[in-house]
Amino acid sequence: MPRFSIIVPSHGVAARLSQALDSVLGQSFADLQLIPVCDAPDSPAAAVAAGHAARDCRVTPVNSPPSAGLSGARNAGMRAATGTYVLFLDGDDLLLPGALAALDARLTETAGVDVLYAEHERAPWWEGEPTNPAAPLFARAPKGAFAPADLPELTGVQLPAWSAVYRRAFLGEHELAFPDSHFTDLGWGGLTTVAARRIAVLRRVVVRHRLRRQGSRLNLPGPHQHAVLDQVDLVLTRGAEQDLPADRMRALFEQLFTYVLRTASRPERLPSGHRAFFRRAARLYRRHRPAGFQAPGGSLGVQHRLLAAGAYGAFQALRGANRMASGAAERLPRPRMVRTRLRYLRDLRRPLDPDLAVYCAYWGRGYACNPAAIHAKARELAPHIRSVFLVEADQAHAMPKGVDFAVIGSRRYWEVLARATYLVNNANFAEGIVKRPGSVHLQTQHGTPLKTMGVDQSTYPVVAAQSGSFTRLLGRVDRWDFNLSSNRHSTQMWERAFPGSWEALEYGYPRNDVYYTATAEDVARIRRELGVPEGRTAVLYAPTHRDHHTGFEPGLDLEAFCEAAGEDVVVLLRAHYFYDQGSARSSGRIIDVTAHRSSEDVCLAADALVTDYSSIMFDYANLDRPIVVYADDWDVYRETRGVYFDLLAEPPGAVARTPEELAAVFRDGSYAGGEATALRAAFRERFCEFDDGQAAERVVRRVLLGEPPEAVPPVIPLAERVPAPAAATLVRS
Asked: Is the full-model pTM beyond 0.85?
């Protein structure tokens, strides 16, 4: 029997679940059972839990359907628990180092208490100092184990379930379980308090509760707010049945009705039924009010008295009088010229154009990437929608014929941004753009994240120094309605890197559709356009950006590579778009394709890919052609930029650490051999999950045509997809 069973519900927090589980398994005190509770065996969280279970026999995943809620998940975990003591941990929180050892020592000191309460810290999700809300209350607690009557203020309803340890035999003896419905911690804390006979406290922080940027789901408006009254009624009824002493009942009553009044004083949480909530609360107040209870002083005491009297009108008037003005005015747009600014303000007051869509790719670098692919499909499926692409002035000449565009900063640029119903971007629109009610903003992204992104970059000084204000970044994230994803890994990492209220669309990347729709004739044509000699093996070399470098450094002597790899090898060099200066670096057997508009065309032309850590590998994997990772500085890159997984442990093919190793895998053909093929198959299974040639159609139907999710084309299974054919046979003699 393990000392501790730690139960970790995971619904909605798959992106951070691995961090929570690691914080438990990394404890110095190892006598434990870890129980992740997942929605279903095929859920994203279940994959995370299964991976930990495969590595550590102490992990025992269980399932609980989302319909059962948080209470159902925790109860399912308790049914699987075998430890002497039970702990709870939210799937996006952390058990701090040394926590279990400290809890074990305190439980030994206090000899079998029913409940051991421990301190926790509430960590702001971004800026600000953590707080320790339990510390003032625990400071008044006796030093050893004590009866609850010795500290009536410690009721448990003020503390979350994960701020305590519970003796499992005690829970079984009293048949304690989390009450159904919302605010289950409130009911659980009260029920365990009523049942406990000996308790103790630990004056040490054991859990770091990471506040969500979006706030608690319980604070959202809706009929679930009525559930707080159910929990209050349940706890106070149980307290009366157990004949709790008057001091304990008074403390319990006051703390529970603090929650009730908090909801009653915020009618915006109850768009309908606020009067009914107040009246039922008043009845409960009068029914459960303990003998000798005196309302607190000040405005809170007035609220108590009005609730007791059922004086709804007077309560509303008091709330209105005390309510402070809240919310900041929307930041004014900032076009540079005063006249343009005034015009933009005027256009913002005009109705949205329901048939206008605005697209932008790579901060205006031209007609490219996911926005271009969505634009092309929209012309086919939604011809009634007028589309305008935003480009920088020096890229206007490169726009395809027939594509309407506006130059960034021009009068028309501000006009279409003010009036458009649909806004599609693979980066972000400018700081001063106002997100109007009724408009729909689709963030398409432009790659699968290996390196850290968004707020995850904040702990890497070199990257953070170049990233600007993360607060402003998140202000731009707040404009997103939809965020596109090509695999579940991306979905989870975007949730971590760009916390917001957007909806994830696991539809694949529209720019990758061409990898399944292009023909052999298309491949041959593109190779001719790029100047690839007939019969040669074209190796695409696409290194990524280095935050610790000030300019483009190829990282490889390409001429020497060609000589060493074989006489039929030519290299297509594509530098990161940060270094696209419009000047070619072609020479000999090196063809510079950095300035070519379409990275998809370049990939179709290539017989194999050599890259370091560029996200192009995830897109290229759709073609099911050989990929070689050239990782000459992996350790430096990982430390300076940060990565989401160990690429060298899960590569898409052969790995080379030196120029000699790289040339050798091409000379001997192992870059396309059986081992490399098996690695690529596993990589494709994980990262080509939703790319099937129909991503653009799914996006257009869901976002621009407003069709329901179930109406969009389903994803074709990977085994049934047929990628575009390569130009050459890649098995060398």
From this structure: no
